[in-house]
Every structure is written in C-alpha cells, then in structure tokens.
Design a protein that fits this description.
The protein contains nine helices and no strands. The protein is an all-alpha fold and 245 residues long. It is globular and about 50 Å long. The two termini are 23 Å apart.
Length: 245
C-alpha cells in the first residue's frame, strides 16, 4: 500500500504540467501579474519545506552530518542548471532548436529528480512525503507556465506544447520507481536524497525565484510579493502542523 503514495503524488505533480491550459483563458497582462506573485509564494514554500521539514528530518533520522548533503544538493542543482539548462535558456537569442529541445530535456531531468525526492521523502514517513509534494506543486505551477511559454515562443503550437510538457513530466515516475525499488540495494538512499532535495529547494528559491521578485520596481507590488513569500512559508508550516497533530 505504501508504494501507492509516491506514485499518486507524482501523478498529481505531472497533471500540473497541463496548467498551460489556463493561458487560453487568462489575458496575458493578468497572467504575468499572477505568475510573479505565485513565484513569490513558491519561493516561500520551497524555503519553508527545506528548513522546517527536509533538513530537520535529515538530522533526526541520520544525524547532523547528513546536512552536508544539503550543500552538495545546492552544487548539483547549480551544475545541472548551468550546463544542462536545467529549466530553459534564459537568453532570448538562443537558437530555435536548442531553445525548445534543450528545454524539454532539462525539464525531463528536473521531473526525474522531483520523482526521486518525493519517493525518498515518503520512505522516511508519509508526513514528509506530503509536505515535499506540496512544496514541489507550488513550485511546479509557475515553472510549468514558464516552460509552456518557452515552447510557444520557440514556435510550437499550443496543443503540441501541452502534450510535450505532459510527456516529459512523466519522467517523475521513473525517478520514483528507481528510488523505491533500489531502497534495499542502496543502503540509506533516502539519507542522501532527502538533504539533497533540501539543497535543491534552497537553490531553486534563492537563485531562480527570488531574483524574479527582486525585479519588481513598484513599492506596493514589492510588498505584495513579500507577503506572498511569507504566505507560502506560512502555508507549509500550517499544513505541517495539522498533519503532525
């Protein structure tokens, strides 16, 4: 029965890849504003999940030395983003084919990693698995909007872009399967992946998401975004409290 939890979690995360459907319904001006604030919310959620769930659980189960993998996680995510275009090419002058196909490859790697982190979290306990999944979902929504926009910008029609985005999201199932069925072969695999996941969350929030928030120039909008950062952290803490008690 326990194997169903991580698979159900990645199924929900994979469905998030279809969020691009909303682009058919929301005006671009409103969509851009929504995304900026949701990016702020996602940053707060990722940081809270890392510092209040993944890292404490790592210390509790495997001792303070496990925190060293948090640093390794930050470095690994930097390498993936820098050399594999982990999300997408941030320069609009990227060649057409590189821009679209590299984005899909990078997104596939990203979802594969998400699946591994989710599976490792559920192996610790259901509570940590749920919290990790929620944090990933909060991050996935603005990212999938971004990935969908990149494919459209690269010349792929909307229906195909939705299909491609969903297809690469399914690599998360491979990540779950690899971790779950190797847990008896690789000793304490989750003692590495859980703090690695924390490092990844910290990296994503501080280098990819918060810099977007810093670009907001209007003081009022900046305060609103700060509120969304705090709200994202508060939601994680509240859910954590209710699940625990």
């Amino acid at each position: 029965m326990e194997i169903l939890y991580p698979y159900l979690a990645v199924l929900i995360v994979s469905v998030i890849s279809l969020v691009g459907i909303l682009s058919f319904l929301i005006k671009k001006k409103n969509l851009d504003r929504f995304l900026v604030h949701f990016v702020s919310f996602a940053a707060g959620a990722l940081l809270a999940a890392a510092f209040f769930d993944l890292i404490p659980q790592s210390i509790k189960h495997w001792g303070a030395k496990s925190v060293s993998y948090v640093f390794l996680g930050i470095i690994l995510f930097f390498i993936m983003e820098r050399f594999l275009f982990f999300y997408h090419c941030h320069r609009k002058k990227c060649p057409y084919h590189t821009f679209t196909y590299v984005n899909l490859i990078g997104d596939g790697i990203h979802n594969f990693t998400d699946g591994m982190i989710i599976a490792a979290s559920f192996l610790v306990n259901v509570q940590l698995g749920i919290m990790t999944t929620i944090a990933i979902i909060f991050h996935e929504i603005p990212q999938e909007f971004g990935d969908f926009s990149i494919l459209i910008y690269g010349g792929i029609e909307k229906k195909k872009a939705l299909l491609y985005n969903f297809a690469v999201s399914l690599t998360a199932f491979i990540g779950v399967t690899l971790v779950y069925f190797s847990k008896d072969i690789i000793t304490n695999v989750n003692s590495i992946l859980v703090p690695l996941g924390a490092g990844g969350f910290i990296y994503l929030a501080t280098t990819d998401l918060l810099p977007i928030v810093h670009k907001i120039e209007k003081p009022t909008e900046s305060l609103i975004s700060l509120g969304f950062v705090l709200l994202g952290a508060a939601v994680i803490l509240l859910i954590n409290f209710f699940i625990r008690f």
